[in-house]
Design brief:
It is built from 21 helices and 18 strands. By secondary structure, it is α/β, with parallel strands linked by helices. Helix 8 runs parallel beside helix 10 and helix 12 runs antiparallel to helix 15. The longest helix is centred in the middle third of the chain and has 29 residues. The protein is elongated and about 90 Å long. The structure holds guanine and zinc ion. The site of guanine (GUN) has 13 residues, from helix 5.
């Protein structure tokens, strides 16, 4: 067990945890958002990020500091915490991002690691190679070998209490991501960023992002803290947390503000297009969009950046509360409704229902059926898995909720409740069957219930009769021939 990361609770694959950062002598609550600080122009002072926004950790770039006469000396002399005036944990990046952008950097892996240690970094980063999406498999394999070799170099050096990131690359090849994650985990390094996500984020390719994260998660132990490198848009935080990401960094709050872009959990808005601010933060309460448009460039940028931070930290708190409460997937589903690209991410996530089910708590407060995707949630899958294993004999009547009449003699009578399917008599009032489902049931919920009946036939010699009150044929058509079906009018 990696003793610096302690897990406190799960919902789907999302978790609450505590990351202990020994060099900073602090414990950071996860999921956590790390604002990105550019040491040359701080949009919001780190002290304010800590005091007003609740940032427990931030991230800055050691390569930028290394290459600047102006900040390198004070960083070496007084350390990073004094330079930035921040008492929480500080993670630094290595220049890999610049490597990806400009093709080269003038520092070696060993040099920049040693520099990070010298300036007092709490979590350092080796020079991994951020292989972009959609490149040839050959290139992805080749660059992975270099990344892995640099991680091993980092693992062999002694950096005292400094934790070290082990970035996971592999482009858009899930099997390479999974292998890279296994190899990174094997180095014994401390934190595991999923890398080269920026091009996917910029194109809103949340489905591909989820593929990469879920693959990386398969290669890592549960005790591995996972960072989604370069992911700062609050519209995808809930989705990424549900996939098991623990750390996020946001440069978006400042970069977007620079272009008059206003972040919301439902997407990005342009200041020009807003007549009202759809937000309760101090900035949006005190100002109107017209007000902000009248301000000078610098002031407008600062105020927008503050709003962007309020929204981002607010969403992180909402996510933590949702994990506590057990309704994280309801939150993801709500976010998915705001943008088709997030639906894509959510559908990609639900395709790994077994991976989600493995850590999903057996009991929660409630299950809200909010859309067709709810039918594919791990709680439904778990119920179907149980039905699969049941061995029954004799005559079994399964009847839809609302049918009470029984014709004939049965050994047992079960109720069929969409989206779960057959529920043994007496268990109708237990979780998750107590789900809140709309009265006007959709096709996917019916079909999922039929999958449940089908699962029950797998290991049973029982003869099963299904009586329903007018279910759609699109669902009934999927029943195996062995099930005897009849209909009665609902009462
Ligand atoms: N910042 C954004 N993406 C990456 C990445 O893949 N590697 C590193 N080191 N930094 C990043
Ligand atoms: Zn606001």
């Amino acid at each position: 067990m990696r003793e610096h990361f302690e897990l406190q609770g799960y919902d789907a694959a999302g978790r609450l945890g505590e990351l202990t950062v020994p060099r900073a002598d602090v414990t950071v609550e996860t999921p956590a958002l790390l604002p990105v600080i550019n040491p040359h122009h701080e949009t919001i002072e780190p002290r304010r990020l800590e005091m007003e926004f609740g940032a427990e950790m931030l991230i800055t770039n050691s390569y930028v500091i290394y290459g600047s006469d102006e900040v390198r000396e004070p960083a070496l002399e007084d350390g990073l915490h004094d330079l930035l005036d921040f008492s929480g944990a500080i993670m630094t990046d290595s220049g890999s991002f610049q490597l990806a952008e400009y093709g080269e950097i003038d520092v070696t892996n060993e040099e920049i690691l040693a520099f990070q240690h010298e300036i007092g970094t709490d979590i350092g980063t080796p020079v991994d190679i951020p292989t972009p999406p959609d490149v040839s498999r050959e290139r992805a394999v080749d660059e992975l070998a270099t990344t892995q070799q640099r991680l091993e170099v980092a693992a062999d050096l002694d950096f005292g209490e400094m934790l070290v990131n082990a970035p996971i690359q592999g482009s858009t090849y899930p099997d390479l991501r999974e292998r890279a994650a296994g190899d990174a985990y094997g180095t014994g390094l401390d934190v595991f960023p999923v890398g080269a996500m920026v091009p996917l984020m910029n194109d809103y390719r949340y489905g591909d992002m989820i593929e990469a994260v879920m693959a990386a998660k398969r290669g890592l132990g549960e005790d591995a803290p996972v960072h989604l490198f370069g992911a700062g848009h609050p519209m995808m935080f809930a989705l990424a947390v549900a996939a098991g990401c623990d750390l996020f960094d946001s440069a978006a709050y400042a970069l977007y503000a620079r272009d008059d872009r206003y972040l919301t959990v439902r997407g990005t808005r342009h200041l020009e297009d807003l007549e009202y601010f759809p937000c309760e933060c101090p900035i949006c309460t005190a100002h109107s969009p017209a007000d902000l448009r009248d301000r000078s460039g610098d002031e407008r940028m600062r105020l927008l950046a503050e709003h962007n931070l309020h929204v981002s930290f607010g969403e992180m708190r909402r996510i933590k509360q949702a994990i506590r409460r057990g309704n994280l997937l309801e939150l993801v589903e709500t976010r998915a409704r705001a943008h088709p690209t997030v639906i894509d991410g959510y559908r990609a996530l639900l395709a790994y229902v077994d991976q989600l089910e493995a850590t999903d708590p057996a009991s929660k407060d409630a299950f809200f059926y909010l859309s067709g995707e709810s039918a594919d949630r791990p709680e439904v899958q778990r119920h179907h898995d149980r039905l699969h294993r049941i061995e029954l004999t004799g005559e079994l009547l399964v009847r839809s909720d609302g049918v009470s009449a029984t014709a004939g003699e049965y050994d047992d009578v079960w109720t069929v409740i969409p989206p779960f399917g057959p529920i043994p008599g007496g268990l109708e009032q237990t979780y998750p069957v107590t789900a809140e489902v709309p009265d006007r049931i959709d096709d996917r919920a019916y079909r999922s219930a039929i999958r449940g009946i089908t699962a029950l036939t797998e290991h049973s010699d029982a003869s099963i009769t299904f009586v329903h009150d007018g279910w759609p044929t699109s669902a009934l058509d999927r029943l195996p021939d062995s099930v005897d079906v009849s209909t009665v009018p609902s009462e």
